């Protein structure tokens, strides 16, 4: 009989070991619950409560005849159950036989197979084998002790095999065509679930039900065991050709779990041999329950996970935008996998979870989560998205573009929400998976340190899409501890960088500490308890922002600069159009077309970036974290460590805590950079919350600039203040305009802060400090104008003016700025005027060589750019002087200031109303932001504001370079002609001219001192000294007013560049006496001479 048994396959050793262990586990069984039998005539159901099945023995072969008789007894039909008060009795043996037949669809009885049309498979080889074992006895009923043999016999049947056994031929012919082993096992598993459901509904006694359930679970374990083995070794049993086998058979149903296919969870119209969406979770749980205890889960599901997460759909060029959104299926499948605790742990233990051999560039393609996390919209990784959604954006309507934005943002939101849920599930699974997730984030950070560099090859680091997606995940992890009242802020470990190695800042620049100080601090604070999860997330989110998200924003900003370059190039190529009709036309037109194509590509890329970076939900989360980070940073600087409850006192202590000094500088940088981005591109997002925190951060570090070493960071904070008062929508004064005029902190500190920074920015130590200061001061000027109408702020200015030395230095810097900026802007206006005049002579211009014309056109554009900047900066500073001179006079009358102020005003007045004024006439002055009428009005107002000050009229009279009575009278004519001033102002102007002329006569009389000894003359100004002092290092004698004026701009000795303060100078008392005596003697002589002259005349 043994020859009739099909050749038994030889499984691999591991599979055999697993199978043998399984057989050992199947020896203990108890059962209950009858199900209608398909193998024989239904067994008679008995209602006798005293009758109960005997517990099975290891070999269920006793009393085979009695068993056969039981099979032939009729009765009980499932279709007509009778509800009785007493529980129904379960004929366990009959139910067990029927259940196994139904679940496995196998029988040892040929007649049963015949009646089912061979839907139930007759295991003829096994039946023949067992018949030899039972000799002349009838074969036993199917029972749990036989299920391993039954299942193996069924799995070993090869539908493709040839047979000469005519009885067995119908069996082979009736097998489901092309059905895989896995499909058969899934069908058996599903039928087993149905049998279990039916059993529970019957209402048998608890003991009987439990016995039956135990048998079902043994069968379940066996089916799941072979399903797992099939996933590992699909060729263990005969399989159809041409079908995907093994892991793909589970990957396919996992892919059906798309979030868009959620309704399918209730759809039962799927094949009886395939896993429907509603089956998968339980199937995965069964696999985990079976294989996890033996640490074999990765062997079974490892390749399933790999094939799912490295699915080819994730690498298609269309990415998220494809018509076939298989990526959603990958997400759904992964969500199902991680919902099972054992599988979640297994995934994080796989070598591909955090591959050791990966680098920054390929980590997102080699790590399990990488392909999903790199999906996005940015152009470098996904150029087709920009082409499909934002082609020719200049030709698209705003509504059309907004529709594309909404579509992509909806897709991104779906992806990022799912990614967070996956990571969150992993974190909540247990300590080991949580640690694996944290190490994953840490690895991403450490690999991408170079992303934050100024010059970085994008091919050597992670993509923008990958980094931004990880950032969104971390933002969501951070939300629970970022409550409005900051109740959990103390749970963040301030010594994290010494206690943890997740974020390595060894090579990072610190806020205010040297390398040695940072190293010593870390060594002193090493050890201690491991940081908590909140601390890990907080610092990882911050680091990820610096190396990832902020760099993506920087890339977006670079596109904007590139677009400006393209526009300039286009303007250069177009020129004045004189190339039209020349031999150069074809070449130039081709170049223009190429540039226009490039422009369209850059615009498409910009739109793609905006789809993600300007997504309202991402901006809200980014602002929320940045605000929280800014509050935490101030708390670290606060000596009391209580901010914001109560707020830190400003200005902060001069003693900067070492724990603050050693923090990485990028914390401040990221706060400032994101605030600048958000205030510029999404100011409306601050309307709900964040204004107070934004303002307090700005005031804190601009009032206490000694907390930050980097001068560029301080200037960036000032830039944020400027952007936060830039109007948008209906808010004419921006985000903070209203708050700066009402908040007590702003009313108390703003004026002092602005003045302090205006002075400090004069010397930053950078090579570009001369030009950088003008941008910073323009911003300050704008802020001052916004708050100037508030009397409280003007009172604060007057209080600041009481600190004469500081205020005088502030005024001196303003005068210096106006002098330089006005000179540059008016000079460039003259050059622009000259070139435009040359171009207006069309005949002469066209006669010039093409290269000459192109060169002059390029020079003109460059001059226009520079002039626009200079006129804006100069005008804003003049406006400040106008406001300040109207409010306070005394500081402007200081000896070291008043002469310089008068000379500057006279010089610019002469440029605007003197003979040179014709050279300032240019085409389109508004394009250059040149408003000569408004500028002249402001200059005249400064004169009028100070016209009643004797020192001022004397200083004007003493200006021998620019002042003349004719100049002032010409200004009066223009004033009247252009209606620049009122009648009363014109009268004040005339009175000023009279006073200046009188002062001039007095000065001329005083200055006729004859020959003055050289030692009495100031070495810089060559005027007679009134208060000579000796400089301590160079030992040079100079007038006090002269050196004070010098020190306002330069804190060094002008003769040897050594550091110098006004307190260091030594009065030259003896020389002063000699000068005073000289002046008295000369004045007396002048009086005598004057008297003699009068006598001679008479």
From TrEMBL:
Residues 29-52 have a biased composition (Low complexity). It catalyses: S-ubiquitinyl-[E2 ubiquitin-conjugating enzyme]-L-cysteine + [acceptor protein]-L-lysine = [E2 ubiquitin-conjugating enzyme]-L-cysteine + N(6)-ubiquitinyl-[acceptor protein]-L-lysine. Residues 1011-1085 form the U-box domain. Pfam families: U-box (PF04564), Ufd2P_core (PF10408). The keyword Transferase applies. Residues 1-62 are annotated as: Disordered. Its EC number is 2.3.2.27. SUPFAM superfamilies: RING/U-box (SSF57850). It is found in: Cytoplasm; Nucleus. Belongs to the ubiquitin conjugation factor E4 family. PANTHER family: UBIQUITIN CONJUGATION FACTOR E4 B, UBIQUITINATION FACTOR E4. GO terms for molecular function: ubiquitin-ubiquitin ligase activity. InterPro entries: Ub_conjug_fac_E4_core (IPR019474), UBE4 (IPR045132), Ubox_domain (IPR003613), Znf_RING/FYVE/PHD (IPR013083). Keywords: Cytoplasm, Nucleus, Transferase, Ubl conjugation pathway. Pathway: Protein modification; protein ubiquitination. The keyword Nucleus applies. GO terms for biological process: ERAD pathway; protein polyubiquitination; ubiquitin-dependent protein catabolic process. This is RING-type E3 ubiquitin transferase. GO terms for cellular component: cytoplasm; nucleus; ubiquitin ligase complex.
């Amino acid at each position: 009989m043994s020859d009739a048994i099909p050749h038994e396959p030889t499984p691999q050793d591991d599979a055999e070991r697993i199978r043998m262990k399984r057989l050992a586990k199947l020896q203990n069984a108890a059962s209950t619950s009858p199900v209608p039998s398909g193998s024989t005539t239904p067994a008679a159901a008995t209602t006798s409560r005293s009758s109960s099945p005997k517990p099975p023995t290891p070999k269920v072969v006793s009393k085979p005849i009695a068993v056969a008789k039981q099979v032939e007894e009729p009765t009980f039909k499932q279709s007509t159950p009778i509800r009785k008060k007493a529980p129904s009795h379960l004929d366990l043996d009959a139910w067990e036989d029927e259940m196994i037949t139904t679940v496995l669809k196998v029988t040892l009885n040929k007649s049963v197979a015949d009646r089912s049309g061979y839907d139930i498979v007759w295991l003829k080889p096994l039946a023949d084998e067992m018949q030899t074992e039972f000799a002349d006895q009838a074969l036993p009923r199917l029972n749990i002790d036989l299920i391993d043999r039954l299942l193996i016999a069924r799995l070993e049947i090869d539908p493709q095999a040839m047979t000469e056994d005519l009885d067995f031929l119908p069996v082979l012919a009736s097998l489901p065509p092309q059905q895989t082993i896995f499909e058969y096992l899934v069908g058996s598993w599903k039928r087993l679930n149905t049998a279990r459901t039916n059993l529970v509904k019957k209402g048998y006694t608890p003991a009987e039900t439990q016995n039956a359930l135990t048998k079902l679970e043994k069968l379940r374990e066996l089916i799941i065991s072979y399903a797992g083995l099939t996933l590992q070794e699909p060729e263990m049993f005969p399989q159809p050709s041409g079908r995907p086998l093994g892991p793909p058979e589970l990957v396919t149903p996992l892919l059906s779990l798309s979030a868009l296919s959620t309704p399918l969870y209730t759809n039962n119209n799927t094949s009886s041999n395939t896993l429907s969406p509603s089956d998968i979770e339980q199937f995965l749980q069964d696999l985990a329950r079976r294989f996890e205890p033996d640490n074999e889960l990765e062997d079974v599901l490892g390749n399933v996970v790999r094939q799912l997460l490295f699915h080819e759909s994730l690498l298609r060029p269309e990415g998220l935008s494809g018509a076939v959104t298989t990526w959603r299926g990958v997400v759904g499948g992964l969500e199902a996998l991680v919902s099972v605790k054992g599988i979640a742990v297994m995934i994080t233990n796989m070598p591909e979870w955090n591959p050791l051999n990966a680098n920054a560039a390929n980590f997102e393609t080699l790590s399990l989560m990488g392909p999903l996390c790199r999906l996005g919209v940015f152009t470098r990784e996904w150029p087709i998205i920009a082409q499909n959604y934002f082609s020719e954006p200049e030709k698209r309507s705003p509504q059309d573009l907004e529709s594309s934005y909404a579509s992509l943002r909806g897709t991104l939101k779906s992806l990022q929400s799912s990614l967070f849920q996956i990571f969150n599930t992993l974190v909540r699974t247990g300590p080991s998976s949580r640690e694996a997730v944290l190490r994953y984030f840490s690895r991403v950070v450490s690999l991408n340190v170079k992303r934050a560099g100024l010059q970085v090859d994008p091919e050597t680091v992670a993509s923008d899409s990958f980094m931004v997606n990880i950032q969104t995940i971390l933002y969501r992890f951070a939300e629970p501890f970022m409550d409005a009242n900051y109740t959990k802020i103390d749970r963040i470990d301030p010594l994290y960088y010494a206690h943890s190695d997740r974020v390595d800042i060894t090579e990072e620049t610190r806020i205010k500490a040297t390398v040695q100080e940072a190293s010593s601090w870390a060594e002193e604070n090493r050890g201690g308890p491991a940081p908590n999860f909140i601390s890990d997330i907080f610092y990882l989110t911050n680091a990820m922002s610096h190396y990832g998200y902020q760099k993506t924003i920087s890339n977006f900003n670079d596109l904007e600069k590139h677009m400006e370059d393209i526009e300039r190039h286009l303007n250069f190529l177009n020129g004045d159009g004189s190339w039209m009709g020349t031999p150069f036309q074809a070449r130039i037109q081709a170049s223009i077309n190429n540039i226009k194509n490039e422009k369209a590509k850059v615009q498409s890329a910009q739109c793609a970036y905006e789809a993600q970076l300007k997504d309202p939900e991402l901006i809200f989360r980014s602002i929320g974290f940045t605000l929280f980070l800014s509050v935490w940073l101030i708390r670290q600087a606060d000596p009391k460590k209580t901010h914001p409850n109560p707020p830190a006192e400003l200005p902060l202590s001069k003693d900067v805590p070492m724990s603050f000094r050693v923090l990485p500088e990028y914390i401040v940088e990221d706060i400032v950079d994101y605030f600048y981005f958000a205030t510029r591109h999404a100011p409306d997002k601050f309307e709900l919350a964040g204004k107070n925190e934004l303002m307090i951060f700005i005031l804190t570090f601009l009032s206490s600039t000694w907390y930050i070493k980097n001068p560029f960071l301080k200037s960036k904070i000032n830039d944020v203040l400027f952007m936060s008062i830039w109007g948008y929508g209906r808010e004419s004064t921006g985000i903070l305009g209203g708050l700066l005029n009402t908040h007590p902190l702003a009313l108390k500190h703003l004026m002092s802060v602005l003045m302090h920074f205006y002075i400090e920015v004069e010397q930053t130590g950078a090579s570009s400090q001369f030009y950088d200061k003008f941008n910073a001061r323009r911003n300050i000027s704008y802020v001052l104008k916004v708050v100037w109408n508030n009397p409280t702020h003007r009172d604060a200015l007057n209080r600041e003016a009481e600190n004469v030395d500081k205020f005088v230095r502030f005024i001196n810097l303003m005068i210096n700025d106006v002098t330089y900026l006005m000179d540059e802007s008016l000079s460039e206006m003259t050059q622009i005027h000259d070139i435009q005049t040359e171009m207006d002579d069309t005949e002469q211009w066209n006669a010039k060589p093409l290269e000459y014309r192109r060169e002059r056109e390029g020079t003109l554009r460059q001059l226009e750019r520079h002039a626009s900047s200079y006129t804006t900066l100069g005008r804003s500073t003049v406006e400040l002087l106008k406001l300040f001179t109207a409010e306070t006079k005394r500081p402007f009358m200081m000896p070291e200031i008043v002469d310089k102020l008068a000379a500057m005003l006279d010089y610019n007045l002469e440029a605007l109303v003197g003979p040179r004024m014709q050279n300032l006439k240019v085409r389109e002055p508004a394009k250059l932001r040149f408003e000569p009428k408004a500028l002249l009005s402001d200059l005249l107002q400064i004169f009028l504001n100070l016209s009643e000050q004797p020192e001022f009229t004397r200083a004007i009279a003493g200006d021998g370079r620019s002042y003349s009575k004719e100049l002032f009278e010409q200004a009066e004519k223009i004033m009247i002609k252009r209606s620049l001033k009122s009648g009363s102002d014109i009268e004040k102007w005339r009175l000023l001219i009279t006073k200046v002329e009188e002062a001039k006569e007095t000065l001329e009389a005083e200055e006729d001192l004859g020959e003055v000894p050289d030692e009495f003359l100031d070495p810089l100004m060559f005027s007679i000294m009134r208060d000579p002092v000796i400089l301590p290092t160079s030992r040079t004698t100079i007038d006090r007013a002269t050196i004070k004026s010098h020190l306002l701009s330069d804190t060094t000795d002008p003769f040897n560049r050594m550091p110098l303060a006004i307190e260091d100078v030594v009065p030259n008392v003896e020389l002063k006496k000699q000068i005073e005596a000289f002046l008295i003697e000369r004045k007396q002589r002048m009086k005598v001479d004057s008297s003699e002259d009068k006598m001679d005349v008479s």
